[in-house]
Amino acid sequence: MYQVKTYNAIAQAGLNTFTQNYTLNQSEHPDAYLIRSVNLHQQTLPESLKVIVRAGAGVNNVPVDQATANGTAVFNTPGSNANAVKELVIALLIISSRNLMAATSYSAKHTEADVSQRTEHDKTKFNGTELLGKTLAVIGLGHVGSLVANAALTLGMNVIGYDPYLSADAAWNIAKQVQRAATLKDAVKHADYVTVHVPKNEDTLNLIGPDELAAMPAGANLFNYSRIGIVNNAAAVAALDAHHLTHYYTDFGEPQLANRDDVTVTPHIGGSTIEAEVNGATQAAKTIMTYLETGNVKSAINLPDLTVPFNAAYRFTVIHDNVPNMVSQITSKLAAANLNIATMANAAKHQTAYTIIDVDALDHQNSQQLITALNAIPAVTRVRLIANA
Question: How far apart are CA 388 and CA 294, in angstroms?
């Protein structure tokens, strides 16, 4: 029986995904955390914890280094809220082009008897533009960016994409009409609208700064629905003050953005739809079950991808440092236990490596002795034994 601890309000459809081999919130020694926004940085992770899955895109609230040191795999649910973010960005593109924020604010303030005559006289103040034929630069063409790019094409926009890390799989999801830029500045230099959809890391922090804003044509509109810090907000405010940037839309507020007519801040609602919450919770539950029951890894934050068909009776998984001579040390322990290896695979990601070993026969005494021997290897972080159900 596997124990799962949940934090935050997890969609019931996701919780219903767990099979009868899982219990929820009934143990102080959980095998898994299923979380959304809870901040785990001030917590000590229990030794029993084998996997953390966040039902959402980012993992800024997860102490990834601490988890790795604890032998805990960390996953998110990429793409689960991509459509929700896409729809909000497309909505804001239309709102921006038609000056709907200012127009509705005007209407709310003028409700007197002659409102029809007044609005007929004043409505030209809110003349907008059409998106048809305008240029949208999409920075980052992953789960969200590719959907935004494709949707903008259907609106008749010219779309230019920039993503130096675009994978072959992701490229299949992007319409061929999306033009590819060689550099970020090339992508934005003719853009009427610029939208950013990249993960937050050392390479993307302040990705849109003074130089990138200066490369945009005067009058451009900027959207940040990725993470706070991707856009240098101080630089964006300076560009707004200089009337180089027309409007800035973001999901991440800061005091310097408050009380400005040329800034629209939404309260971190990009991925907040009922459907996205269900998608994230369901994907998270499936990820937990796959990892706990098979040890297979796909798109973990802190472990390499390693997926091996589980055809043997038993499987050992070993998280260890990515240092020389580890495979030979591990296999020598199995040889000493007189075990024949049916299948073996190894992969590494940065400083962490992961090894899967399948065996056909194993008795209880041998298994406990072998786990102890493997854990005694200095560079080993966690050893698991999984029986094939």
Answer: 8
Q: Would you say residue 116 lies in a domain?
A: no
pTM, full prediction: 0.84
| Any domain includes 340 | yes
Name the strand (E) or helix (H) holding 211: helix 210-215
Same domain, 230 and 292: no
Same domain, 159 and 256: yes
Using DSSP's 3-state secondary structure scheme, residue 289 falls into helix
Q: Residue 52's Cα: distance from chain center in Å?
A: 14
Structure tokens at 37: 């926004």
On whether both 157 and 248 belong to a single domain, the answer is: yes
Q: Which two tokens stand for residue 95?
A: 């709102």
Same domain, 320 and 363: yes
pLDDT of res. 70: 98
Query: Do 364 and 314 contact (CB within 8 A), yes or no?
Result: no
- Decide if 38 is inside a domain: yes
- 95/91 Cα distance (integer angstroms): 6
- How many structural domains comprise the chain? 3
For 150, the 3-state DSSP assignment is: helix
Phi-psi region of 148 (alpha: psi -120 to 50; beta: other; left: phi over 0): alpha
| CB-neighbour burial class of residue 115 (10 A; exposed 0-12, middle 13-18, buried 19+) | exposed
CB 76 within 8 A of CB 84: no
Same domain, 291 and 382: no
For the record, the structure tokens of 44 come out as: 């000590």
How high is the pLDDT of residue 118?
58
Angstrom distance (rounded) from CA 59 to CA 258: 26
Residue-wise pLDDT for 362-385, tens only, equals: 887 778 899 999 999 999 999 999
29-87 residue pLDDT tens = 999 999 998 999 999 999 999 999 999 888 989 999 999 999 999 999 989 999 999 99
Q: Side-chain half-sphere of 353: how many Cα atoms within 13 Å?
A: 16
- Residue 282 shares a structural domain with residue 342: no
Q: What is the pLDDT of residues 234-292, one digit of tens each?
A: 999 999 999 999 999 999 999 999 999 999 999 999 988 999 999 999 999 999 999 99
> Domain limits at 14?
1-80+273-303
